[in-house]
Design a protein that fits this description.
The complex is a heterodimer. Chain A is an alpha+beta fold. In chain A, 18% of the residues lie in helices and 23% in strands. In chain A, β9 and β10 form a beta hairpin. Chain B is built from 23 helices and 9 strands. Chain B has a 3-stranded antiparallel β-sheet. In chain B, a hairpin with a 7-residue loop joins β2 and β3. The chains are: A alpha+beta, B mainly alpha. Chain B: Keywords: Signal. Chain B: This is DUF1592 domain-containing protein.
Chain lengths: 425, 562
């Protein structure tokens, strides 16, 4: 074969070879609001009785009763709850609230040292989320009538003040999304497909990534569209889904074994097993829907402890150990099989995202929904954008750095007038 | 702390400052001598602009000195604030602001960590007066602020102030701070006092003094006071020689500070002060906020300075280029990705974006529009005014705007056509609107659109029989207009000399415009040509009222000052 002929054949072969896989279309978004999918069964407000919680939002516990049942005298309980008590910080609460377990154990880190108070959960049949187990006979019925919606997280915590309310109006969602919108963190979404029509494509890939670029509010207080966000590679936080779109609705074509997202709540890192998406491209260019899977329930509890137990309990009307018991009781998934310990609980996030430009870590071109984990800084390298608490939380309470989270002695639990000069100083 | 130990003591010290400033005021504002032969006299007074004030302070004390305060409003005359500055005074409230700024600045520069930078000398004792050291400080700082060496009287007054302050407080630097405050509120600092002196080469004629020439040059090229080298050249008489002037011009034009001067000039010419009060309807334009306004202003200045002073490109490309700079806010407004890790990045708009020069940037499009809508008329009026030096008369007081304000119907073209049924309005609108209508693919903040109220926007336009379409067509049309480079030449000259050109300047400006064209419309070269021409330093008496008893004498002066 002549050299020329070989060259021509090589050229022909190169033309016939399949082109590198390239996305035929790409859409990018910045999440402007996301929250646990908690169906609200009342007609108005955030506390009224409804089909979800017939008794309404769980009321604030009687803290004097809680303390006296934990072994404190009524006088001690009243003093511990008294705003004039110098040991009760107006910002961080009363540290002694932690020590109401058996033998003054810290109930935040040892919740089983106090009995289960019985957190009231959702009793309704309607729920939002995704069918994670493929069984239409388990779970809730969706608002549109779809069956098999698995969301035990909602069943467990849906009547808690933190989560109860119509979309975008529960106190927890408001607080967390305000923080995100004020720049605490950013999650971007990149969607691409191989066909010609984003609305109907059998081969869609969806990626969720953190970005170091902050959301920007527009003049109306919403999150402005069309801003550019650069993906910040992270060794953990990344979620890739294979999906298909039908009339603009993008649903998982398979369950993803494990993905990680930035949790909009106190847990910070959200692991989802058997994860799925159900997102819709809206006519105005935005993206809305659900991301769900089985999440480990213990980090949910730990997140609230880390967020300062006394503050969470006082502001959100809950006894944290009751949350621990309820999550453990309602966990519905074991990664090790049906007989294994139920370490995970079915869960879904309600997601709203605005159109955005998302660029890869080097800021060149347009981001594609691929893994960027290999570009993440080596472990141990400080993450410049990680949000850190400005105070020192140990075992669920705020104490000076270097100090230990310990219960006060009985002699310090009464006001000075009843204990003399050596009282609560 | 012993400074300002008592209220009474503070009042006395403040009085001392005012007195010393008063001495300077008296010296500066004294009427010209009635017999002018051999006398130096003031021929123009121009108040420092805010940016000039800031640059002067940075030059005198360092760029890290904080200047936090409000400045007196400026006034635009003949298209430029620089010309209006020759007609400004300082109100009592404005003087309070300058006094407060002086206090803030003097406090910073005499603080222990910075006082060593004031002068090479150290006081014999920091708790007592030291006139020799105070004189060194006053002399060095005074020359930088007054842009010329201080007279003995000016210096002695401040040294005395420093001494009195030090004796009263027991703190040498407290006294120095008072002396500095006195300099900082002096008219010789706050105003550029342009002086003329008899011209030894032309008996009976006057010329600008060397220091006045130096000021004109440095404020034109750098928007800052003359540096030490330029002051030296002024004092030595070099600026009166063609060779000496050329040498200094070459230095000024080659300095990176030329970009600072270019920024100041275009900030003035493009009327960017309108950003200060710019508001937009939040519902109509939710992306518009202060960050975007600041970004737009910076985009226009970066683009202009880079194109004209860094790349030294043809001035007319300012209307045709699709190259610019953007940041994250602007990228969102223009709906393009921001592919940079930095705060700003060079960017070239794609052809279908229809961006064509600075008139298609957010600055022009948002400044000259309504709060909730675009305005072809405002854009057209301002385009003629800013770039062609063709101001449009104000509309009649009784004009009916109801048809153009019905924003919810049709396109702005249809609304304007309805408005122009009033023949009294039509005459001006026929001139202003076509160029504005060609920009209608951009809304009131500069976002691209092709529909308004569901109707396709027509961006065809015609002026004087020339038809063009959309912003790129308008840009090409403007590029051909001789009025545009001629207007820039006129503005540069007026900006430099601080007065509106009149009919006596027309031939000179025509020649300069021709030279500008021959040179490929390179702005820095044009600035050098203007600044090296005798007309740039031509002495003209200010047209200010004189007391009746002095009319005859003043007329005599005018006859001599040509």
């Amino acid at each position: 074969m002549s050299a020329l002929r070989r060259l021509l054949l090589l050229a022909a072969a190169s033309l016939a070879a399949p082109a590198p896989a390239m996305a035929a279309w790409t859409r990018a978004f910045a999440i402007e609001w996301y929250e646990p999918a908690m169906y609200y069964g009342a007609q108005s407000g955030v506390t009224e009785p409804g089909t979800d919680c017939p008794a309404g939002t769980n009321p604030e516990p009687d803290w004097i009763k809680v303390l006296t049942e934990a072994g404190y005298t009524r006088e001690q309980a009243l003093w511990l709850r008294n705003p004039a008590n110098p040991t009760r910080s107006p910002v961080h609460g009363q540290n002694q609230m932690a020590f109401r377990g058996a033998g003054r154990a810290n109930v935040y880190i040892d919740p089983t040292s106090t009995p289960d108070g019985g957190l009231v959960g959702v009793t309704g049949t309607i729920g939002e989320g995704l069918d994670l187990d493929g069984d239409p006979n388990t779970g809730f019925v969706g608002p549109a009538g779809e069956r098999g919606v698995d969301n035990a997280f909602y069943r467990t915590l849906g009547c808690w003040k933190t989560f109860r309310g119509p979309p975008r109006l529960s106190s927890g969602a408001l607080q967390n999304n305000d923080a995100m919108r004020d720049g605490a963190w950013t999650v971007v979404v990149v969607v691409s497909g191989r066909g010609d029509d984003p609305m109907n494509d059998d081969d869609v890939t969806v990626g969720f990534y953190p970005s170091g670029d902050k959301l920007v509010k527009d003049a109306m207080g919403g999150v402005a569209a069309d801003y550019t966000f650069r993906i910040r590679p992270d060794r953990k936080l990344e979620a890739l889904f294979k999906a298909r779109s039908v009339n603009g609705r993008i649903q998982s074509s398979r369950a993803e074994e494990e993905v990680w997202l930035r949790d909009p709540g106190a847990a910070r890192d959200l692991q989802l097993l058997k994860a799925r998406i159900d997102l819709s491209l809206k006519p105005d260019g935005s993206l809305s829907g659900y991301v769900g899977g089985y999440r480990p329930w213990k980090p949910v509890y730990d997140g609230y402890v880390r967020a300062r137990g006394p503050v969470i309990e006082a502001l959100t009307w809950v006894r944290l150990p009751d949350v621990f018991y309820a999550l453990r009781r309602n966990a519905d998934y074991s990664p090790t099989g049906p007989t294994g310990e139920k370490t995970h609980i079915s869960f879904a996030l309600r997601v709203d995202a605005v159109p955005a430009f998302v660029v890869p870590p080097d800021a060149k071109g347009t981001a594609r929904p691929i893994s960027y984990k290999k570009q993440a800084p080596p472990s141990g390298q400080p993450d410049s954008t990680a949000d850190r608490l400005p105070f020192n939380v140990v075992d669920g309470i705020v104490i000076p750095r270097g100090a230990k989270a310990v219960s006060q002695p009985d002699s310090a639990l009464l006001p000075p007038s009843t204990t003399g000069a050596g009282g609560a100083q | 702390m012993r400074r300002f130990a008592t209220i009474a003591g503070s009042a006395a010290l403040a009085t001392a400052i005012v007195l010393s400033a008063g001495i300077a005021v008296q010296a500066a504002w004294a009427d010209p001598p009635q017999s002018t032969a051999g006398a130096e006299q003031i021929v123009a007074i121009r108040r420092l602009t805010e940016s000039q004030y800031r640059h002067a302070i940075a030059d005198a004390f360092g760029a890290d000195v904080r200047i936090e305060g409000r400045f007196e409003p400026e006034r635009r005359e003949a298209g430029l604030l620089a010309i209006g500055s020759a007609q400004l005074s300082i109100t009592p409230a404005g003087f309070e602001q300058y006094f407060r700024l002086a206090d803030l600045i003097a406090g910073q520069v005499t603080a222990p960590e910075r006082r060593a930078r004031l002068a090479a000398c150290q006081p014999a004792a920091e708790t007592a007066r030291d006139d020799a050291c105070a004189r060194q400080i006053v002399s060095r700082v005074g020359e930088a602020l007054f842009r010329r060496p201080l007279t003995e009287a000016e210096s002695a007054a401040r040294v005395q102030t420093a001494a009195a302050g030090a004796e009263h407080t027991g703190d040498f630097y407290a006294g120095v701070a008072l002396a500095l405050k006195s300099l900082l509120v002096a008219p010789e600092f706050l105003f550029r006092m342009e002086r003329a002196e008899p011209d030894p080469a032309a008996p009976g004629q006057y010329r600008l003094t060397g220091s006045t020439k130096a000021e004109r040059l440095s404020f034109l090229f750098w928007d800052a006071p003359p540096d030490a080298e330029l002051r030296r050249a002024a004092a030595s008489g070099e600026l009166h020689t063609a060779q000496g002037l050329r040498r200094q011009l070459a230095r000024l034009a080659a300095s990176p500070r030329l970009q600072q001067g270019g920024r100041a000039f275009f900030t003035d010419m493009l009327q960017l002060e309108h950003f200060d009060g710019l508001t937009k309807d939040s519902k109509a334009y939710p992306k518009f906020n202060q960050a975007l306004a600041d970004s737009a202003r910076e985009q226009t200045l970066r683009t202009t300075v880079d194109m004209l002073f860094v790349q030294k490109r043809d001035y007319r490309e300012l209307f045709t280029s699709n190259s610019t700079f953007i940041n994250r806010h602007l990228a969102a407004l223009y709906r393009v990705p921001f592919n940079s890790k930095g705060d700003w990045a060079a960017f070239t708009f794609p052809k279908d974006a229809e961006r064509s020069g600075i008139i298609t940037e957010a600055t022009f499009l948002s400044l000259f529009a309504h709060p909730a809508a675009s305005s072809p008329t405002r854009r057209g009026v301002k385009l003629h005014e800013i770039f062609m030096c063709e101001p449009t008369p104000d509309p009649p007081a009784d004009v009916d705007f109801s048809k153009v304000q019905a924003l919810e119907t049709g396109t702005v073209r249809t609304r304007l056509l309805a408005h122009m049924e009033n023949e009294g309005c039509a005459a001006c609108h026929r001139v202003s609107d076509p160029v504005g209508l060609a920009l209608e693919h951009f809304d009131g903040v500069g976002q691209r659109r092709t529909l308004e109220n569901g109707q396709r926007i027509d961006v065809e336009a015609e002026i004087n029989g020339v038809k063009f379409s959309a912003a790129p067509g308008l840009g090409l049309y403007l590029r051909q207009q001789q009025k545009i480079p001629a207007c820039l030449v006129r503005n540069v000259y007026g900006y430099g000399v601080g007065r509106a050109p009149d009919e006596r300047d027309e031939d000179y400006l025509a020649d300069q415009t021709e030279a500008f064209a021959s040179d490929g419309y390179r702005v820095p070269h044009m600035m050098v040509r203007i600044a090296s021409s005798p007309e740039f330093f031509k002495v003209k008496l200010p047209a200010r009222a004189k007391p009746a008893t002095k009319v005859a004498a003043a007329a005599t002066h005018e006859g001599g000052l040509q």
